[in-house]
Amino acid sequence: MSRGRVVLVTGSTSGIGLGIAKEFASQGYDIGLNGFGERKEIQSIEREIKENFGVQVFYSDADMSKPSEVERFVGNANDVLGAIDVLINNAGVQHVSPVEHFPTDKWDLILAVNLSSAFHMSRLLIPSMRTQRFGRIINIASAHGLVASMNKSAYVAAKHGLIGFTKTVALEVAESGVTCNAICPGWVETPLVKVQVEALSSEKSLSQEEVIRDLILERQPTRKFVQIEQVAALALFLASEQASSITGSSYSIDGGWTAH
To answer: Which of 20, 30, 76, 91 fits a disulfide with 11 by CB distance 3.0 to 4.6 angstroms?
Structure first.
């Protein structure tokens, strides 16, 4: 058990981020949550984590697209939870459109949330991690950090950039006791994916089951969704002492997608 450790997880009020937060809480980590949502739902999440795992929980509604808000999140988390041991850069947004029709505001937003927020969180936390001679930075990238798909130019660009950023940070902190790695999930069963399934079902006049089988999972040889708990378990391992020699690496958890 890693009692006394503190983890911040951006974009953690639902989906992969929330699953990761709960996995770390189960191992005694105090949790810094971040994201949007109905206040009552978020309060329920906070209460559930505290009651189930007996850890401290701090929540910030900081907008990860704004550097000043990122700074507020880190500053307030430090005040409430103390020094941060693990950073999970998970916040992400998506928009699907051909390049020539891609709204410029959507491009800017996706790059800000999916890539730049990881830079801002990391630059703010690396100094204290260096001081304590321990730190784990885990970037939730994507299979789209390794391969491309049509109509997802901003997302693909951001996730490729996040993997490059991961390697650079790993080299810079290599002698400090800090590691930096990326996780590259394929299709994961999340609320965001469910919205995409519904949209494709309407657009293609197919059932949701047909969309999942023939469109969503066509690139995933296992024909199964990756489970949130599987991503969370990998993140927990990368944060452990046993993973101290793993840095600058990207780990696919994609049902064989990038093995093609």
So the answer is: 91
